[in-house]
Write a structure and sequence with these properties.
The protein is an alpha/beta fold and 299 residues long. The chain has one domain: Aldolase class I (TIM Barrel, Alpha-Beta Barrel). 40% of the residues lie in helices and 13% in strands. It is built from twelve helices and ten strands. The protein has an eight-stranded parallel β-barrel, surrounded by six helices. It has a two-stranded antiparallel ribbon with strand order 4-5. The C terminus is likely disordered.
């Protein structure tokens, strides 16, 4: 492995473990709940991530240029939730564009078993051919579109292995309750766990991430179960503890509760802080005299 590739992989996966924050959902879902203003959503989470997975549009418009964490650029697309088949993707962002944006890796979806299996596997192969000479790793995403019933060990093992065989340096795939260790064992490159649909409770998230890590995954590529949660910072702190500190799901719950309580105390202290006395001679303006004008939209 050349120095450039090795350096990028080491930054993406520090110490052999990783938390990738996924915010690429809008490329086919549009303004997803809590990602309407992505810059505001991710601001408190960035200190806790190892890399950010996003599209070039969001990177340019919502991510601070001072970001020191690596970026994995989503480079596939071409479909939407309103279309007939989410699997009909193509490569929409060039490797040259990824280099220009200083991306540390690129990622795209592969739809094994779909009507567009051939096209998406070839997309991956071509992207690897174009990325490897520049030392840029490719992350393959084993996507299932709307067919969530495909997420069993047999299918996921097939999909992850095919992605690795085509040259992906990392594969993002779903966790499954039975046989996930076979998925990881059959994939010769690192596996990161996809977040999947939003879970009902934080404990459910901690359980599947902890189980996946114990069975060989190196981390997660997870978004909505963090930034759609009422306490996203507490969630990401707990998940980071599972990934980088090997804590159990029960211990992660304790980390979450502690962080949540601290966040509540800080918010209460800010609310209860005494307001400065008004200088003598100043008279508050009548509320009815004030005209609230709409603020300009800030991105």
């Amino acid at each position: 492995m050349d120095w450039g590739m090795a350096n990028r992989m080491a930054r993406l996966i520090p110490g052999g473990r990783c938390y990738f924050l996924a915010i690429d959902h809008g490329y086919f879902q549009g303004p997803t709940t809590k990602l309407e203003r992505p810059g505001e959503t991710i601001a408190p989470l960035l200190p806790y991530i190892d890399a950010l997975f996003c599209t070039r549009g969001v990177l340019r418009s919502a991510v601070p240029t001072t970001l020191e964490k690596p970026v994995i650029l989503r480079v596939s697309g071409g479909t939407s939730m309103t279309g007939k088949d989410l699997a009909h993707e193509a490569v929409t962002t060039s490797v040259e564009e990824a280099i220009r944006l200083n991306a540390s890796a690129v990622g795209l979806s592969v739809f094994i078993g779909s009507d567009y299996e051939h096209e998406t596997i070839v997309n991956l192969s071509r992207l690897v051919n174009e990325s490897e000479p520049h030392g840029i790793p490719v992350m393959a995403v084993t996507a299932v579109g709307r067919e969530l019933e495909k997420r069993d060990a047999r299918y996921l093992a097939l999909a992850t292995r095919i992605c690795a065989e085509q040259g992906a340096r990392v594969v993002k795939t779903y966790w499954c309750e039975e046989g996930f260790e076979k998925v990881v064992d059959g994939c010769p490159v690192p596996v990161v766990i996809a977040g999947g649909p939003k879970c009902d409770t934080e404990r459910e998230v901690f359980e599947f991430v902890s189980d996946g890590m114990q069975k060989g995954a190196i981390g997660v590529n997870l978004g909505r179960n963090v930034w759609q949660h009422p306490q996203p910072v507490a969630m990401i702190m707990a998940l980071r503890a599972i990934i980088h500190e090997d804590v159990s799901a029960a211990e992660a719950q304790e980390v979450f509760e502690s962080a949540k309580a601290e966040e509540t105390r800080a918010a209460r202290a800010k609310t209860d802080a005494p307001k400065p006395d008004m200088p003598k001679g100043d008279t508050p303006k009548a509320e009815t005299a004030r005209i609230d004008r709409p603020k300009a939209k800030v991105w």
